[in-house]
Amino acid sequence: MIDHHGSMARIDLDSDLLRCFVAVAETRGFTAAGTLIGLTQSGISVRIRNLEERLGRRLLDRTSRSVTLTEAGELFLGYARRMIDLNDEAVGRIRGTSAEGRLRLGIADYAIPRLMPNALGRFARLQPGVKMELRTGLSADLRPAFDRGELDVAIVARGQIFDGGELLYRDQMIWVAAPDFALRLDRALPVATLPSFCSIRRASLTALDRAGIGWEIVYESTSTAGMLAAVQSGLGIAAIESTCLERSMRQLGEQDGLPSLPQSEIALHVREEHLTPGCEAFIAFITEELGTP
To answer: Which has more confidence, 8 or 171?
Structure first.
């Protein structure tokens, strides 16, 4: 766009448009993005259309089943994140909301794809004075450390190990298999799972039972990474959170004769006593970043 002086006309981008775009890019869905930042699906659509019109480029390819980034969208995503970060860093510095202190954080490994590197990297850039100590694992690995006071904050799925907490977000459970896995429902279905205390394991096996599908556990892992490696090796299928889906896997569903799965709830648990300013800053940040409206 050229103005009457022959130079490029200035195009200003509102941060709320940028936040909408980043939310859609990270969740790969308009509904999920709306849930993340407290807008309706149509509200997200209007803002994305506005942003694309200002830039004169399509940023997203939308189909009835998925949202993917165009080449321009991939390029723009990095800039959008940096502009949002700079905006929030400037506001934080001017308002004096930068914090210091230690943050001992436990994250369930199935929540890592949603939180790292984007959310945690963003927090580290906005709060450089906070020293973060991160521990990952399954809920059963994190619970003893949380109870002993070795963790200030834990982000885990609601289940028999951690109940309650403040809901951060919901994640859809899905079935996955290796691309060349031959699914047969006329024999016991080979299943890779996490240990018996895992809420996803219970939900997925219950769904198979209700559908009248026989199953056999062929691989049990103490980590999500180990379970996904078994799936990629073709040993069996598994139920995982949708954010753990990797390109080397094939998503299965009702069209393949498998039962639909429920959503899992990822919650924030905080040890209330003696919170450092760094902990308080993180709780405020992650609640605003991921919390359900």
So the answer is: 171
- For the chain, the structural domain boundaries read 15-94, 171-265
Direct distance between the N- and C-terminal alpha carbons of the chain, in angstroms, rounded to an integer: 38
For the domain bounded by 15-94, which CATH number is listed? 1.10.10.10
Give pLDDT tens digits for 117-167: 778 888 887 888 888 899 998 888 899 999 998 999 999 998 888 988 889
What is the average pLDDT value for the chain, to the nearest integer?
86
Residues forming a β-bridge with 62: 67
Helix (H, G, I), strand (E, B) or coil at 126: helix
β partners of residue 107? 136, 155
Tens of pLDDT, residues 111-129: 888 787 778 888 887 888 8
Task: Give the pair of three-digit tokens for residue 24.
Answer: 């859609």
Backbone CA torsion sign across 230, 234, 239, 243: positive
Which residues, 6+ apart, have CB-to-CB distance to 58 below 8 Å?
52, 70, 72, 73
Q: Do residues 153 and 279 lie in contact, with contact meaning Cβ atoms separated by under 8 Å?
A: yes
What does each C-alpha distance from 129 to 45, 97, 98, 162, 193 come to in angstroms?
37, 11, 7, 30, 39
In 3D space, the residue among 258, 272, 109, 105 whose CA is nearest the CA of residue 183 turns out to be: 258
DSSP E strand boundaries for 158-201: 166-177, 189-193
Fold of 171-265: D-Maltodextrin-Binding Protein; domain 2 (3.40.190)
Helix (H, G, I), strand (E, B) or coil at 196: coil
Burial of 10 (0-12, 13-18, 19+ CB in 10 A): exposed
What gap in Å lies between CA 56 and CA 235, rounded to an integer? 47
Decide if 99 contacts 277 (C-beta within 8 A): yes
